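Hey, can you fold this one?
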Amino acid sequence: MASVVQLSVPKSNTTISVPTGLFINNEFVPSLDGLDPIPVYNPATEQVLCHVVSAGEKDVDRAVTAARTAFKTTWGKNVTGVERSRLINKLADLMERDSQVLAELECLNNGKPVKVARDFDIGDSVACLRYYAGWADKLVGQTIEVDRKTKVAITHPEPIGVCGQIIPWNYPIQMWAWKVAPALAVGCTIVMKPSEITPLTALKLSELVVEAGFPPGVINTIPSLGSVGGAALSSHLDVDKVAFTGSTVTGRRVMEAAAKSNLKKVSLELGGKSPQIVFESADFDQAANWVVLGILYNTGQDCTAGSRVYVQDSIYDKFVNLLASKAKELVIGDGFDERSGGGPLVSKTQYNRVWGYIESGKQEGARLVVGGEKRSTPGYYVDATIFADVRPDMKIVKEEIFGPVLSVGKFSTEEEAIALANDTTYGLGAGLHSNDASQCMRVSTALEAGTIWVNQYNLLYNNVPFGGKKQSGFGRELGSHGLEEYISTKAVHWNYGEKLDWPL
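Sure. Predicted structure:
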């Protein structure tokens, strides 16, 4: 049995117990590979919280074997939709029961405020599990007419099999739920690789998997470096599908490994450089609220972050000043402080990356409107930073930053706004703000992204599909479309009357 650590919760007399081993076959176990353990940090203090076991290739093999055995025996086609639904709902109930503890653990390891983790990430994750629990006994095939006198064809939606799921560090619990819920609903088994930066909540959720009553091997959790565990899952010959959320660079590697191994099914939710367009007819105050939400929620560590904003020239100066005043109102601080609406960046690496972009913006001549100064206190904190008067060739405009850094440019015509918004290799999200209904329809149709928000931004719903275009990936999560990523449709051709003459 692997060890358990006790983590102290700031500003209270409580502790949280967290298992630090690999979760395979409903047990926390040590590694077979003997790799160095992974240090896990608190980004608010820059101090090590604990160390967790790091999975190697032998451990990935062991987890995949456990998932395959469960798929063939106690899960897959061997359990009814009603039972799958019951267990998923039970897991949701346990997550809801433990939402405060999970939120505190998320804050310790990821840095996001407890209230945000509890009320939004975990609240939405519970709802996601319940949404897909409702689908588990409603998966239907078709009866297709071929020849009414002699033949019929029937389709069966079958679970694709063992799924490797690789999730990022920006939404550790929510991305876990987005991947796990649809896979379980259709009957797949899972080998989950959480980010090596934020593995703690995935391990804590694994305890709830046992408590909910899932058979051993249905869900396995293997913290590991991406270059080890992620690579092993992507290239594993007994994994039927890999789902990845993360950077476009890593997504390419996942897709290449999947192609070179067994051509496993792949779904990718990758990076973004999402635009928002503010037209002169927009409600200024509301548009400004949505724009700052789009870049400052989760301290900008969001694949759909609206990091490029284009404002019509007739309202440009007024709107930039309004954005600056709104951005200054957000408190970015200790996640255990109820006043904080944003926390530190997740790691030193990410902190240095974001500051590199801020310095680049200054050097390339963008006008710094707010922020752009380092704090002298511990923690990977970056305050809201807004650059105005940007050019399309600037790094801060072209490349994904993944921090609270906003680039603001201007346009004159609707056509120019659309061209600026679509001038990117990404296509995950886009937004527009206008009170002209015809304009909203024209522009939303012309924007090249998987999700378009009109007079709002960054709100997602469990019954609405989400995914990207271009180099933001392919495949869809959420909604009924999310189920399709884990289904293999079998067609059965049934001849009950035709006689074959031979030879031809």
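The first strand starts at residue 4 and ends at 8. Let me know if you want another pass with a different chain boundary.
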